[in-house]
Design brief:
The protein is an alpha/beta fold. Helices cover 33% and strands 25% of the residues. The chain is built from ten helices and eleven strands. A hairpin with a 2-residue loop joins β4 (76-83) and β5 (86-92). α4 packs antiparallel against α5 (117-124) and α6 (150-160) runs parallel beside α7.
Length: 264
């Protein structure tokens, strides 16, 4: 439960209410698997009549599955945790430490449905994540264009930051949609994080230009570029093909650009 879809729900408490309608509809022999690190997720667990399993990184919350350690590089993810008092380690080719919080509930559901822990760990090794890394000439492309929300954007920045510093780091984005009244505030916060990671920020619509540009300053020298014409954006991309750079595609990208990159 996060700021995503605030323009639809109005505020995060209404988002919480809508999500909990799903959990409250579960019968007594049903199961809710919940992120107990998130205060909006755990706040109303006592209202549920069904079984509950929890996961998270905060030991004080005593989750069913406690994630104790995560390590991630451009080859994959390692996680160490405790499930019902038993130690467990898993490895997966998915990229990004944030995926530990995606794998954890899947692990719990699989246990609940009768799979053995060793069988689950074997299947975790075959997972594929939504973020893909491909090549475009000399460039590395991080494709996180499926959608975008604040947590996902930050996770993609962490992946971008794992590339060697000698590579020019470029972010291409239209910004994040459906954030309602929080939009300007959230975009400014993301821009502040961008300036620690990226050499260049390319914005492809005028919707959030000022919110993304204004926090950038000369201290970290993140160059701001507006390319709201798809053909001009495609030409810009072509000019990067033979350079030593890594490009993060964040949120929807015009089809002409995706074709040039060989993604569609």
């Amino acid at each position: 439960i996060s700021e995503q879809h605030l323009s639809l729900f109005g505020d995060i408490k209404k988002t919480q209410q809508a999500k909990y309608e799903l959990l409250q509809s579960l019968p007594q022999d049903g199961l809710a698997v919940v992120n107990c690190d998130n205060p909006y997720c755990r706040e109303r667990l006592g209202d549920l009549k069904c079984g509950v399993m929890t996961f998270g990184m905060d030991a004080e919350r005593n989750p069913t599955l406690l994630i104790q350690e995560t390590k991630s590089d451009l080859q994959g993810l390692y996680c160490k945790g405790i499930i019902n008092g038993q130690g467990c380690e898993v490895e997966s080719p998915v990229i990004g430490e944030h995926n530990a919080m995606n794998i954890a509930p899947c692990f719990l559901v699989a246990l609940y449905l009768g799979m053995a822990a060793d069988e689950i760990k074997t299947r975790v090794k075959t997972l594929t994540g939504s973020v893909k890394i491909t090549k475009y000439g000399a460039c590395d492309i991080i494709n996180d264009s499926y959608n975008s929300n604040p947590d996902g954007f930050r996770a993609a920045l962490e992946i971008l930051n794992k590339f060697p510093s000698e590579k020019k780091r470029i972010i291409i984005t239209r910004g994040m949609m459906e954030l309602g009244e929080k939009s300007e505030e959230i975009h400014k916060k993301i821009a502040e994080e961008i300036e620690f990671v990226a050499d260049e920020l390319v914005v492809i619509t005028k919707d959030f230009v000022e919110s993304l540009r204004s926090p950038l300053n000369e201290k970290y020298r993140t160059n701001f570029v507006l390319k709201d014409n798809p053909k001009e954006l495609s030409q810009y991309i072509k000019g990067l093909r033979d350079t030593n750079c890594v490009i993060l595609l964040e949120n929807r990208i015009p089809g002409i650009v995706m074709k040039e990159l060989g993604i569609i």
